[in-house]
Design goal:
The chain has 324 residues and is of the alpha/beta class. It contains twelve helices and eleven strands. Strand 1, helix 2 and strand 2 form a beta-alpha-beta unit. 45% of the residues are buried.
């Protein structure tokens, strides 16, 4: 019988682990991949996530399915990815809500993007659109919205507490000194439907979520939260044009994996994602949804996420908003 010292066993174990990791990286992906979207169907994240999943499936040669796991401002779905095996077969389409604001808003010890998730690459970004009903008594512009919000208590909706739509509306409420209460929903669908019915005064959401209802004559866009007007809504002014300079808010999306995922797998996914974002037909789809490509590498994405923290940390610490 051959007896090996503890030290030799450890060395042998490390070599075998390295060999297995190398083999898994070389053969990846060997099966279907799950892309977790931490918001309900019909949201901007869901719409973009399904497009990205389809394109990645074509690039990788395996099925990439979308799993919607909504709740707690995106924490439930993202937490499921944090706890998933770090093998490259469970990913998430993260946003500034799921990666930054929702963890900051949570009273419980939740995940940290810099400790529990690995960046793969950037996907897209976009400003938000403030919308209201098309009913006769609904505001026609931001000034009328401000007047309505000051003369009596009103309400605004969102796709969930801690989403960027919710927080952007909170910024506007404070800047405009409105008396307006937040009504959270579990997705954009019912939130925007109730705005269209006139039951809620206004909402702030992504272009992919609001454009179908705007084109269908159900919602009236009042203002865009970015630096410039949207091509598809050329008559809708920016916040600066409407008398609120210095506010440039929007949402962005990035592909993330659980910490511990092998570097070669992250590199493979990052390379294929970059090809997806660069595809002419993908750029065309983004343009139709008023999304701007955000082709950041894993290293660039890490720096970008870090740069986003200060604004939201300062605003949220003063806002008193909490998820629980």
């Amino acid at each position: 019988m051959i007896h090996l010292s503890k030290q030799r066993l450890l060395v042998l174990g490390a070599l075998l682990l390295g060999l297995c990791s190398g083999l898994s990286a070389q053969t990846y992906p060997a099966g279907p991949i799950k892309l977790v979207v931490a918001f309900a169907p019909g949201t901007g994240s869901d719409i973009l996530g399904r497009i990205v999943a389809g394109k990645l499936a074509d690039q990788l040669g395996v099925a990439v399915s979308v799993e919607n796991r909504a709740g707690a401002g995106g924490i439930i779905g993202t937490q499921s990815v944090v706890k998933a095996p770090p093998d490259g077969y469970t990913l998430t389409l993260g946003t500034n809500a799921t990666l930054i604001t929702s963890p900051l808003l949570s009273n419980s010890n939740t995940y940290r993007v810099d400790k529990d998730l690995l960046p793969i690459g950037g996907v897209a970004r976009t400003p938000m659109v403030v919308v209201t009903s098309v009913q006769a008594d609904a505001p026609k512009n931001l000034q009328e919205l401000m007047a309505r919000g000051k003369e009596k208590t009103s309400s605004f909706s969102s796709a969930g507490v801690g989403t960027i739509g919710h927080l952007t509306s909170e910024v506007l409420v404070k800047k405009l000194s409105l008396e307006s209460n937040h009504v959270p929903y579990k997705g954009s669908g019912q939130s925007l439907t109730d705005v269209a019915r006139g039951e809620i005064l206004f909402s702030t959401d992504t272009p992919p979520a609001v454009l179908p209802l705007i084109r269908g004559g159900k919602l009236r866009p009042l203002v865009v939260t970015g630096e410039k007007r949207l091509q598809v809504l050329p008559d809708v002014p920016t916040l600066q044009e409407s008398g609120l300079p210095g506010i440039n808010l929007g949402v962005w999306w990035a592909l993330m994996a659980p910490v511990g995922t092998p570097s070669p797998v992250i590199e493979r996914l990052g390379a294929e994602l970059a090809k997806v974002v660069a595809q002419p037909d993908m750029r065309k789809k983004m343009q139709e949804m008023e999304l701007e490509p955000m082709p950041l590498t894993a290293t660039e994405l890490t720096g970008f996420i870090r740069s986003e923290y200060p604004f939201w940390q300062q605003f949220l610490s003063k806002s008193g908003i909490r998820l629980e």
